[in-house]
Design brief:
This protein is of the alpha/beta class and 434 residues long. 41% of the residues lie in helices and 13% in strands. InterPro entries: Amidase (IPR000120), Amidase_dom (IPR023631), AS_sf (IPR036928).
């Protein structure tokens, strides 16, 4: 299925378009041709009957306003996929559900405004699990279409892996950027919580909900972050090698043997490249911490859907409905206790990070390679502690399973140090096994 896998560099695409080496209208034509050739199998994009006319018109309008190479914004003419829980003017938000589109309508998200100001073209909405919760959409993994692409940002990850677009927007509450990026063999970046505004995005759990990106490389992720993140300062990205920490304890035991064997190879490669890697006892009470994080998640999910669920309960997939009902069962006192436990967890993690001098935590990006079948999007547990603490995270492609499926290395930085994480990621990327 190699013809389905063809990720392209955002950095190179943007450079060619800004310099005029590739015309905006010609690039849109190539994008539309690639979608026509591949997406009937991958199903990364939400169907849009008028996509061709809309994109051709947008490209023509952008070209008419062409200020010349010296005035081109950073993403001039770049086609971008946007997860279908993010509002885009002119495109309905369905969130992978059967609820009426007008019920879910809202003002355009700030993240889309920033893309458009940077010169990007919205290629379309990408498929999501229903309401970005638990019921997967139809998207297939470009590497092996009978395997899941992960979730809930399935369409965005697959769209980049299949070369439909060089940049796609996703969201992560627990593991919805990192896991699908690992399964699809691309770079997934989840900024520090709140670094990209989430207005105009359907909520799952606001305590955790974070916008992020899928790209082919770490340099591509840095380019996108410079456009999308609040208060981006490249000078914060200091050179030098980070000290890497392995969270030794029950958390790593959640990974499958194949993922742990691959992680050992990744760590060996990094040590051989000169990185200092420290094993640190961590997450000794992982099950208790995870329970508190899920209480917050489900409680907030139920409140976010209170009005819609009361009116349209019969239209929800049973898996989404079950999650909402679990949230209804949580008392306000349970929620308050869970929030306090979360703060204790964050403080413990911060103390361990500082006490052992860790710059980046590293771990498997998922419990293993993409599972066979499309009924489940896989397990998000490997992302849970870092999402729970609101840390910036990144997954880098790093090797293959015995069956030839991609594997990834997850890197978690200190809160607010997104620039440093992305700077270091470029060097880590070159040291990891292909």
């Amino acid at each position: 299925m190699g013809d389905l896998v063809q990720s392209t560099s955002l950095t190179h695409t943007a450079e060619r378009l800004r310099a005029g080496a590739s015309g905006v209208r010609e690039n849109v034509t190539r994008t539309l041709e690639r979608i026509a050739q591949v997406d009937r199998v991958v199903q990364a994009f939400v169907a849009e009957p008028g996509r061709t006319d809309r994109l051709v018109t947008a490209a023509r309008d952008l070209a008419r306003r062409d200020p010349g190479p010296d005035g081109h914004p950073p993403l001039y003419g770049v086609p971008v996929g946007v997860k279908d829980i993010v509002h885009v003017d002119g495109l309905p938000t369905r969130a992978g559900s059967t609820l009426p589109a007008e019920v879910l309508a809202g003002g355009q998200a700030t993240v889309v405004d920033r893309l458009l100001r940077a010169g990007a073209l919205i290629a379309g909405k990408t498929v999501t699990a229903e309401f970005a919760v638990a019921a997967p959409g139809p998207t297939r993994n470009p590497h092996q279409p009978d395997h899941t692409p992960g979730g809930s940002s399935s369409g965005s990850a697959a769209a980049v892996a299949a070369g439909l677009v060089p940049l796609a927007i996703g969201t992560q509450t627990i593991g919805s950027l990192i896991r699908p990026a690992a399964y699809c063999g691309v770079v997934g970046f989840k900024p520090s919580h709140g670094r990209i505004p989430t207005d105009g995005v359907l909520p799952v759990s606001p305590t955790y909900d974070t916008l992020g990106t899928f790209t082919a490389t770490a340099a591509d992720a840095a380019l996108a972050a410079s456009v999308l993140c609040d208060d981006w300062r490249p000078e914060r990205a200091t050179p030098g090698r980070p000290v890497l920490g392995i969270p030794d304890g029950p958390y790593l035991g959640c990974a499958e043997p194949e993922a742990l064997a691959a992680f050992d190879r990744q760590v060996t490669a990094l040590r051989e490249a000169g990185y200092e890697v420290e094993k640190v006892p961590l997450f000794e009470t992982f099950e208790q911490d995870a329970f508190a994080l899920f209480v917050v998640n489900l409680y907030e999910l139920a409140r976010a859907h209170a009005d819609w669920f009361a009116r349209y309960e019969d239209r929800y997939d049973p898996r989404t409905a079950d999650a909402i009902r679990q949230g209804h069962g949580a008392r306000e006192s349970d929620y308050a206790d869970a929030l306090r436990e979360r703060e204790v967890f964050r403080d413990r993690l911060a103390r361990a990070t500082a006490g052992y001098g860790i710059d980046l935590w590293i771990a498997p990006a998922a419990t293993g390679p993409a599972p066979h079948g499309l009924d489940s999007a896989g397990d998000s547990v490997m992302s849970l502690p870092w999402s729970g603490a609101g840390l910036p995270c990144l997954t880098l492609p790093a090797g293959r399973s015995a069956a030839g499926l991609p594997l990834g290395l997850q890197c978690a930085g200190r809160p607010g140090e997104d620039e440093r994480l992305l700077r270091w990621a470029r060097d880590l990327e070159s040291a990891l096994p292909a």
